[in-house]
Each structure stands twice: as structure tokens, then as C-alpha cells.
Design goal:
single chain; about 325 residues; eight-stranded mixed β-sheet
């Protein structure tokens, strides 16, 4: 039985891969646990897969999943989770800024914490990044995400995390939602703990994060907030907006109609009349949209699973069927 699966998505990280593999193997062998390393090649074009192929040929504990194209970090994590065999799953970045030597500490914290702790999140307390361009936006983002989701963490952006497999395997991930894993998992009632971890300066390549990704993260935060609060009752959010608008429009229209019936001069061109009509129509549309969303929510929860990735090939020494049979 595999105790520990380490899942690492990479995209064009060729220079770092040999050192990453060596550090992982040294750390995991010293831990004394049975393990597997799953590296997901998310459509690299710099020779990363060729390097991984050579490493996998000499290391039976390394599994390489190659995606057909660049699906994004979230989809790469999802592919790794689906194929992980360990009862504990650890995630990390492939750029060597996360220190593999922190992995045993995360696993120990998960196993020795008070009963009920299902996720241990890394906290890059002494982060080695530029303050104004990286750390300050991260601090603000962490506070916004914590306030919006109700799961308060210092460092949502740290990929170094340890999960119980049954928690993370049941999650469906889209967009840029890998950073929201603790918040999404909180819907299951899991307990989460933070642990300070090391953070190292980037030595290879450059960061793929920019303003474009920040915008996508904000949009995904809205999605996460909706899923956490209203995924099974969307009518409540649409109805809470639509009903007051429709009621206000009805009051305005009724007041104007009463004035008209009492002989007051009510011009059909008055803006207030058009406002009342617009509010009524918008309110009806929002309530109707909420009812349709209720149907969609039930379809979503009852539909068959659909992966967010397409695998080109998997390199591994032990067939998956045989490995699963040994669990």
C-alpha cells in the first residue's frame, strides 16, 4: 500500500527537474514511508518530458503524466489527484521554491494533529519574493479570500499542502481553483491547519503569474463563494435580489396607477413609470433565472463525472490496476 503521493504539476521547468527529483527522492526515502512521485507535464515545450522520461526509466517510484496540451495548473492537479494511490496526497510546485524537506513535517502534522484535521496548508512565512509586486498583492488577496470564503489562511497561494486522499479526490476543480482547495473542501466539514514552511528564491525560469491571472483568480473567487454558499440553493441568491426589485417596481407602478385613477396628470413619458416597469421585468427575470439555476444545480450534482483534462500518455513501472489491487 502506498502511504504518500506527491503530486507536482510542471510547465516548462526543464532546468529544475533533475534537482527537484533528487531532493524529493532523498527526502521521501529518509522519511521511511512508502511513496510515489507523480509529476504532471502540463503541455511543456522545452524538453521537460524528455528529462522526465529519463528520470522515470531509473526510478520506479516516479510516475509521469503527460497532458496533450497546456490545460492549466488546476487541471494538472486534478489529473494527479485522480491517479494518486496514496492515502495522503501532498501537493507542491515544480520550480524548487517549495522545499521538499518540508513534506515530512506536513505529513506528520496531518497524522499527529488532533482528530479531525484533514488538510495541512503550508505558510510561506518568510517569503523570498519582491514585496510590492508579489508579497503585498498576496497579503491583500489572502485577506479578501479568507473574508469571502470564511476559511482564514495566511497563504492561499502556497502549493505545499497535505491532504487526506478521501478529501481531495472527491473535489471537482475548474479554472484557477487549485488555490481555493481548502475553502472548497471546507464544504465537506473538514478541519484545516497551517504550518510554516520554507520558501526559496527562484533559481530557474520566471514566474507565470501576472495581472491576467489575477483577474481570473478574482472571478474564480466569486465562483467559489457562490458554490460554498448557494450551490444547492441558487434561487435564494437570485430571489433575494429579484423579489425586492420586483416588489419595488410593483409599488411604483401601483402608486402611478392610483394617481391616474384619481385624476392626477400622469404622463406616460415619466421616468418613474419606466423605472417601475424595468424593476418588475428584471425582478421576474431574476426569479426565473433562479428557478432555472435550481434545475441546473440538480443536474450538476447528479450528472456523470467529466474530467477537465485529456492525457496523452502515462509513464509508470507498476500497472495502475495492479497498484490499485494492492491498496
Amino acid at each position: 500500500m502506498v502511504e504518500l503521493s506527491v503530486v507536482i504539476p510542471i510547465h516548462n521547468e526543464a532546468p529544475a527537474l533533475p534537482e527537484l527529483h533528487r531532493e524529493l527522492v532523498d527526502t521521501l526515502r529518509a522519511s521511511g514511508r512508502s511513496y510515489e512521485i507523480i509529476i504532471v507535464d502540463d503541455g511543456s515545450t522545452d524538453g521537460s518530458f524528455e528529462i522526465l522520461s529519463r528520470l522515470q526509466a531509473v526510478d520506479p517510484d516516479l510516475r509521469v503524466i503527460r497532458l496533450r496540451r497546456n490545460f492549466g495548473q488546476t487541471a494538472a492537479f486534478a489529473a494527479g489527484f485522480d491517479h494518486a494511490l496514496g492515502r495522503i496526497i501532498v501537493t507542491s510546485d515544480g520550480d524548487l521554491q517549495n522545499d521538499p524537506r518540508d513534506i515530512p513535517g506536513l505529513v506528520d502534522a496531518l497524522e499527529t494533529s488532533e482528530p479531525g484535521v484533514d488538510i495541512v496548508c503550508g505558510w510561506r512565512k518568510d517569503r523570498k519574493d519582491a514585496f510590492f509586486s508579489r508579497r503585498l498583492p498576496s497579503i491583500l488577496a489572502n485577506r479578501v479570500i479568507s473574508a469571502a470564503t470564511g476559511v482564514r489562511l495566511h497563504d492561499y497561494g502556497c502549493s505545499l499542502k497535505a491532504f487526506r486522499a478521501e478529501v481531495v479526490k472527491s473535489l471537482k476543480l475548474y479554472g484557477e481553483m487549485h488555490r481555493f482547495l481548502p475553502a472548497i473542501a471546507s464544504e465537506q466539514g473538514v478541519a484545516i491547519r497551517e504550518l510554516a514552511v520554507s520558501h526559496r528564491p527562484r533559481r530557474y525560469g520566471r514566474s507565470n503569474y501576472g495581472i491576467g491571472r489575477t483577474i481570473r483568480v478574482i472571478l474564480d473567487l466569486l465562483t467559489v463563494k457562490f458554490l460554498l454558499s448557494y450551490s444547492t440553493r441558487p434561487l435564494q441568491i437570485f430571489g433575494l435580489i429579484g423579489l425586492p426589485m420586483g416588489l419595488l417596481g410593483f409599488i411604483i407602478s401601483a402608486w402611478l396607477a392610483l394617481q391616474r385613477l384619481t385624476g392626477a396628470d400622469v404622463s406616460l413619458n415619466r421616468p418613474l413609470l419606466f423605472l417601475g416597469i424595468v424593476l418588475i421585468i428584471t425582478g421576474v427575470q431574476l426569479v426565473t433565472l433562479g428557478l432555472l439555476a435550481e434545475l441546473q444545480a440538480r443536474t450538476y450534482h447528479e450528472s456523470q463525472n467529466k474530467p477537465t483534462y485529456a492525457i496523452r500518455e502515462i509513464l509508470q513501472s507498476v500497472p495502475v490496476e495492479r497498484a490499485r489491487a494492492g491498496r
